[in-house]
Fold:
Amino acid sequence: MFSRIREDIASVFDRDPAARSTWEVITCYPGFHALVSHRFAHLLWKARLRWLARWMSHLARWFTGIEIHPGATIGRRFFIDHGMGVVIGETAEIGDDVTLYHGVTLGGTTWNKGKRHPTLGNGVVVGAGAKLLGPIIVGDYAKVGSNAVVVKDVPPGATAVGIPAKIIMAEQDQAREAHAAKLGFSAYGLSSHEDDPVAQAIRGLTDHTAELEARIVELAERLDRLGRGADEGRGDGARLRKVVDK
Structure:
C-alpha cells in the first residue's frame, strides 16, 4: 500500500512540471488526496465493509471534487491532474500509468448490474471533459481528446476525438505523434484532418524535423560505410606493400 503511494507521488513529478516538492504534492494536490482515499476505500470494499467504503469515498468527494467509487480498480502510478469533476464508476478498471484531466467521466450506460463502466489499458491519457461511457475498452497507450464522447472501443495507440468519438490516428499521424513526443510536445487529440491553422503549422514543423532527422541518420550511415571502406582500402594497401617489399 505505502509503496504504491510513494509511486503515486513520483508519478506527479513525472507528469506535472508545476510540482516542486513532495510536501506540496501531499498537501496541495486533490488528485493525490482522492487516490489515497480510494486506495483505503477499495480495501474496505474488498473486505465487504461496503457502507464504510462508500462513506470514505463520499468524504473524499466532498473534500476534492473527485468521485471515485470504492469498487473501481485502479493500477499503479495513476495521476489525476487538477481533478475537479472527475467521476469514476463502480466497475471501471484502470491500468498502470494512466492520466486523467479534469471533468473526465468513466460512466455507465445501463442500470443493469454487472460490468457497465470502461476499462482503460496502461499508459492511457484522457483529455479534459472527455466522457467514456459503457463497458468499452480503451487500449494501451491510447489517447482521448478533450470533450470527446467515447462509446466504442479505442484500439491500442490510437487517438479518439469528437462527439461521438472517431478514431483519427492514421499511420502518418502515429509517426508524427511519436516524433512530437520525442521532442517533448504531443498535441493529442489533433490529426491531419483538423483545419486549425496553428495545429497545421505545428504538424508541418514536426513533419519537417522528422524528415530532416531521417536524412541526417541516412547521411551518418553512409559516412560510416565510407569510413569503413577507406579503412579497408588502407589495410589492403599496406598488405600490398608488404608483398612488393618481399
Observations:
- Residues 197-245 form the longest helix (49 residues).
- DSSP finds six helices and 15 strands in the chain.
